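Entry for adenosine-5'-diphosphate complex. Fields follow.
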Amino acid sequence: MAGSLERAKRGLYAEWRLHVLSVVSLAVAFVCLGAALLVVVNLHSLKERWGRIGRASVYLKDGAAPQQVDALVAALKQTEGVREVRYLSPADARTAALGGGDPTLKALPQDAFPASIEVDVAPEVPEADVAMIVSKLGALPAVEGVETYGTWTERLGSLLQGGTIAAGALAAIVFGAVLAVVASTMRLALTRRRTEVEVLRLVGASDGFVRTPYVLEGTFQGAIGSTTAVAILAGLFFIVKSRADGDLSGLLGLDPIFLPLSVMAALVGTGALLGALGGALGLRKLTAV
Amino acid sequence: MAHAGGRAPLTPFFRAGSRDALRGAPPGDAQAKKPVLVFDGVQKVYRQPSGGDMHVLRGVDLVIDRGEFVFVTGPSGAGKSTMLKLVYKAETVDDGRILFCGRDIARLTDESIPFLRRNLGIVFQDFKVVPTWTVAENVAIALEVLGLSSRLIRQRVAVALERVGLSGRGGDRAGVLSGGEQQRVAIARAIVGEPAMVLADEPTGNLDPALALDVLGLFEEIHASGTTVLFATHDRTLLDVRPRRILVLDEGRVTDVQSGLSAFAEPLAGYVDGTNDVDVEVAHDEPVVARHARASRAARETREERRVRRAG
Ligand SMILES: Nc1ncnc2c1ncn2[C@@H]1O[C@H](COP(=O)(O)OP(=O)(O)O)[C@@H](O)[C@H]1O
Ligand SMILES: [Mg+2]
C-alpha cells in the first residue's frame, strides 16, 4: 500500500500538467452540480419557512354590516390554532399599501382597498386544517374571498420539485462527465507510462499492484476536483451574499444558506468515489505485456 | 511426490523460502548438475495477419543446468526472442513442454505468471528503464513486488548498484543516464531479486562495441557469482570472447554447440582441432573492458599468428 501511494505520487508529479487539467475540468463539473444543489437547498429552506406560516387574509364584501364583521372576528378568535385576528379597514389597508410611498397607489380611490380580517394561524396547525378553515370562511355571506399563502407554498413546492429533478439530471450528466474525464486522463497517463507498466509486468507485479496507483490517482483527482469546486462555490456564494445582503433576505424573508456540511462531504466523497471508478475504468484495457 | 493430474497450479509458482534453494550454485559444484530450464519438443507458430502460419520453433530440445552461461545465437528473425518470451510467458508454446525449475510453465495460469517472473531477471536491448524514476527506484521495483521491507530493499538495491558499478548514482533520474548506464540499471534490476535465471535478449544491441563488451563482462561476473544466464545475441564478436556453450537457432531448430565446437561460428573455428588452446588467464583486478579486449584478441588469433608470435 505504501508503495502504491509512493508510485501514485510519482505519477501525479511526473504528469502534473495532465492531472491539473483533469482536476480543473472536474472542478468545473462539480461547480455546476454544486450550484444546482445550492438552489435546491435554498428553495427547500424557503418552502420550510413559508410553508409554516399560516396566514390568511379574509376580504370582506363592501356591504358587510359591522355586526357581521364583529361576529366573524369573535368566531375566529374562538377557533383552535388561531393566534391573532385583526380587522383592517379600507383606510388602514390604504395606509399600509401607501407605506412604500408609491405615487401610483396614492392616486387610487379609497374603495380600491377592501376591508379585510387578517388571521394568523399557529405554525403547528397542519396545512389541511388551515385549508378547512379557509373553505368555511369562504362560504360566509359577508366574505368576498380568502387568500392564503398556501398557493405560494404550493408554487414553491413545485419549483422545488422541478429544481430537484433538474439537479438530478445535472448530477447524472456530471457523474458521466467525471467518469469520462478521469478514465481518459488515466488512459493517457497509461500510454505515457507504457514502460512503467511493462517493467512492472516483467518484474512480476500482480494485476492489483499495477492498478492500485492508478485508482489512487483517480481518487485524488476526484477528491481534489470536488473540494476545489466546493471552495469556489463558497467563495462566490459569500461574495454575492455580502453584496446583496439586505434586499435579498428582505425579499425572501430569510437569509440564503450555503450547502450544509453533510452535502459538502457527500460532494467530495462522490468526487473521490467517481475518481476511483474512473481510474479503474481507464485501466480496463490494461492487458499483460 | 506425485502431482495429482496435470492441472495448472493456482498457487504461487514458488513457495516463499524455496527461492534460495533455486539460486544457482557456482559452476563445477557437484550440486550444480540440475536442470534449471528444459525445452522438450517445443513448437511455436505465429499466425500471420495475412493468413499464413509461421513456424518459428519446430521442435526445440535443450537442457540448461544450474549455474551455466549459455548463448543463444542465430540470424535475425531466427526466433531467439521468441525462445526467451516462451520462458517468461509473454508467449505460449503450441506444442511441447518447458520445465523451469522442474515445473511445466506451458500450463501455467495467467495468475501464476507474476510468480514465475519473480524468479527470472530479464534484460532487453532497449533497457526498459522508467526515465522519470530514479536509478534506485528502477532497481527497487523488483523487490517492491515481493513486498520486502523498505530497509531491506534499500540495502539490497545498494548492493546491486555496486555490482553493476553504479554505486552513488541511486538518486539520479534514470532518464539522464547514458545508454550503457541505463543498461546497467536494467541489469541491477534483473539481479537484485537473486533470480534462478537471468534472461538477456540482445542486451548489447544498442551499445557500441566497447560498451557491449563491458556489459557482457557484467553478465559474466553475475554468472561467476552463481547465477544461470541465458544470453541471446546475433553479435558473433561476443561469442568468441571465450569458450562458451552456444545454442545456434536456425530454421526453427537448435544446434547445441558445447564449448565453441561449432562449424557455425567462424571465429570459433580455431578451437576445432584443439591446438588453439586459448589460455586467457583472468586477472581479477583487471578492468572489465581491458580483460575482454584481451580475451577477444586471444580468441581471434589464428594458429599461424600464434606460432609466429611464440617463435618470435
Ligand atoms: N507476435 C508475433 N506475431 C507474428 N510473428 C511474429 C511475432 N513475433 C515474432 N514474429 C516473427 O517470428 C520470427 C522470429 O522472431 P524473433 O523471435 O523476434 O527473432 P529473433 O529474436 O531471433 O530476431 C520473425 O520472423 C518475426 O517476424
Ligand atoms: Mg530478437
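NOTE: Chain B has ten helices and ten strands.
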